[in-house]
Amino acid sequence: LKNAEEVLHLDLTSLTVLRRVPVESGSVNGRVRYGVLSPDGARIFVAYRGVPGRLDVIDTSTYAITPLPLTAPAVSANPGDLIFGPTGRLYFSRKNVAAGEASLIILNLTTMTQTPRLNGGRIMGLDFSPDGAIAYAADGNAGVVRAFSTTTDQEVDTDGVAGNGLTAIPAGIARAHTLVVSPLIALMQDQ
């Protein structure tokens, strides 16, 4: 539940609440902003509004909560999006980070290593190409959609002209909250 103080674990087959898990956000203003279930169903990852640099991991068998400190914390950032990529890695974007701070963190759940990417900016929406090879990140500060490889985690060429350095799609939108990638076009919703 967005902006809540608890996470609900639901059974969508029986349409019942399996468990209400109260979370301690560590801040008077902190509320659940995003929650996402791991592909294997074993963990729920929770990001908070008002608590920069923190993810909690809830074990779905015991409901134990373990804080996951980020190796690239941001002083003033709030979560922008939390989504699992096609290879099972967790992509956590942050908005309003200062120059030099990572606005995107990619978490490998097998090794628990964290890869910081896209310094600075306001990364709000994340999505992936239909084949899973490219990740797209809406950067509201720059008004662009950034593209990067899900294999190398490096920004990639977006216009097919080698060597010109264009690694972002001009979008002209300041507050992109939702990013949807289709085989034909990337669309953003302004909120």
Strand and helix layout:
Blueprint: E1 6-11, E2 16-22, E3 31-37, E4 43-49, E5 54-59, E6 65-69, E7 78-84, E8 90-95, E9 97-108, E10 113-121, E11 123-128, E12 134-139, E13 144-149, E14 168-170, E15 176-181, E16 186-190
Antiparallel strand pairs: 1-2, 3-4, 4-5, 5-6, 7-8, 8-9, 9-10, 11-12, 12-13, 13-14, 15-16
- The number of E-state strands comes to 16
Low-confidence stretches: 184-191
- Determine the N-to-C terminus distance: 19 Å
Net shape: globular
Sequence of strands across the biggest β-sheet: 3-4-5-6
Summed up, the helix count is 0
Assembly context of the chains: single chain
Largest sheet: 4 strands, antiparallel
Report the average pLDDT across residues.
75
Radius of gyration: 17 Å
The fraction of residues assigned to DSSP E strands is: over 45%
Structural class: mainly beta
- Secondary structure: helix percent: under 10%
Encode the helix/strand succession as letters: EEEEEEEEEEEEEEEE
Q: What does the model show?
A:
The protein has 191 residues and is mainly β. Helix content is 0%, strand content 54%. The strands form five sheets. Strands 3-4-5-6 form a four-stranded antiparallel β-sheet, with no helix packed on it. A hairpin with a 5-residue loop joins strand 3 and strand 4. The protein is globular. The two termini are 19 Å apart.
